[in-house]
Every structure is written in C-alpha cells, then in structure tokens.
Amino acid sequence: MAYGPRLRFGEVLLIGVIGLGLIGGSILRGVAARAGEISAGEVIGFDADPEVRAAARSEGFNVADSWREVVNASELVFLATPIADTVDLIGEIASLGAGAPVLADVSSVKRPVMQAAREAGLKQFVGGHPMAGSHRAGWAAADEGLLRGAVWALVLDEQTDSGAWANVAETVLGLGARVAPVSAVAHDRAVAAVSHAAHVASAAYANSIEAVAPMPLSLVLAAGSFRDVTRVMLSPEERTAAMLIENGDDTAAVASVMSEEVLALAKALSARDEGVVAKQLASAGDLRRRYDRLIATEAMTGRLIDAPNRAELVDELRGLVDTGALVADITDVMNDGAIWRAAVLSPV
Q: pTM, whole model, 2 decimals?
C-alpha cells in the first residue's frame, strides 16, 4: 500500500501515540510491526503511568517522558486517552501554537471531542473510533493484531482537512483496518445502539439473575448464552461508565426503546402468544444474519474511485459519509501523485 508524502517510515519520527492502554498500545505495536522493526525513526509512545512506560521500554519500544515530547517529535499523533483527558490534551496541544502535528483520537464518543478540537482551533484534527476492543485493559492487553480487520470510523465533515484525513486514513489502512467515513452525530447514535446499549442490556440482565434465580445453582448451570451476554461486564467499570455517560442521551434513548421491547416480549410470554414471540425472535435473528453477511462482505459491493490528487479523492469520499460504506484501500496508483484511488465496499 502506498503511503502519502507525510508518512515516510524510517526517515523521521512520524507516528506518536499518547496513552498506551488497550487501543493506544495496540496502535504502537501495530505501527512498529507494520514498519518491520521497533525503531526510534518510526513510532514513539507515552503514558502517564510510569509503570506502563517502563513496561513498554522493557520490550524495546521508544517511549517518551512527556506527551509534549511525542507531539514535538511526531507528524501524526494518536490520542488514546480517556475522553476527559483527550479533551484536556486537545486544549493543551492547541496552546502550543503553530506547528502542531496531525492529531487523531480514538474515543468511542465523537461529539464532545470534535467540539473541543473545533473550539481550540485545531485545523488538522481527525476524530476516529476503532471498532475493536476487549474486556481486558491496559498495556498488557495490547495486541499488534487487535486492529487488523476492524472497522475504524473517521469523522469526515465539511470542516475536516482533506490532507489530515488522508494521512490518518492511510495509517489506519496500513494497520489492516477498514475506514468508515462518518459524521460525529450519526456515529454517536450508531454506537449507542450497537455498542453502548449492549453494556446497559448486559448489566440489566446480569443484575436481574440474583433477584429471580436460585444461587449458586444458576451460575453452575450457566453456559454459552450467559458467557456471551455478560462478557462486556468484565470490562473495567470506570471506563465503561465514563463511556456511557459521555454518550448518555443517545444510549438512554436506545435503552428506553429496548425496555419497551422487553416488556412487549414479557407480555407475550405471559400470554403464551407463540406467534408474537416467534416473530420477535425471527426479527432479531434476521438482524444478526444481516450483520454476519456484511462482516463477511457477502452483502457488499466493491468499486474503485479515482481522483487526480488526494484532496479531490477525499472530497469524493465525503459522499460516502454515514452510508455504511468502507474504504478498504487508498493508493497512489502510479507512485507519482497523478492518480489516487480508493477501493470502496458499500452495503447492498
């Protein structure tokens, strides 16, 4: 894959990562693996926890002693800190003045981060959210392959700088992910439904068990369904709570609709209405099968989009925002900047 002119592995220190938890650590490991070796000429990281810094250094990674060192050394910096910390960092980086690198975040809620970046006057900021994760957390959970094959949402709106977006998108693609161009509002509504509300449902389900079922017999009899539904409850509570609260309005709206669905199904069960129960289950099963087909790209069609330069290519990609289309590749076709091509998968 051809990288853009600012992404020259090995010549200067290019990629920085602030926050070396599950996602940030996976980015650091992934960039190093993509470059072929851990080198100070390719990637640098920082974490506020000195024990995390020491652990990363012990594995040979280049780790700074401050976030400012990362910002000063890098051309593209991923902010992989909790949302509140990311918002604070945006303001502090903006206060440094001209010469700031391209910045990208990985927060699971986009509106507060995008608002902070716009209010701070950061022109080269790209909001992002890799749809990958684990109930595990921290540097020890980071995995260079975590982001491979993942969908990575990147905010692309009228204010997004085309060059900055292309740089981030090419780096993300280089990590093996696929890019979904999104708006901040639609992103937050979508993840409230498919991600954040899942934590609400799981918590409500788990908390209901002790109230209605015999213990410890219920846990002894629990098997795959219980494990699947409650897996997300193994995530750190503070991290999950902060995520849910940041997207509180959208997640609460989904939870409200979900409660109506549960009550309707409970009423049908009490009435022994097999038709209603079967219809509800079939509708849910159809949605899951649609998801499986999309993930396997069986329900997607591919096409190529060409443009004479990167900026015009990004302008073409703006037409895909919030459509569910995925950018699978961005390439300098002739290696001379004359033709830029995006390979796109769109739902059918």
A: 0.90
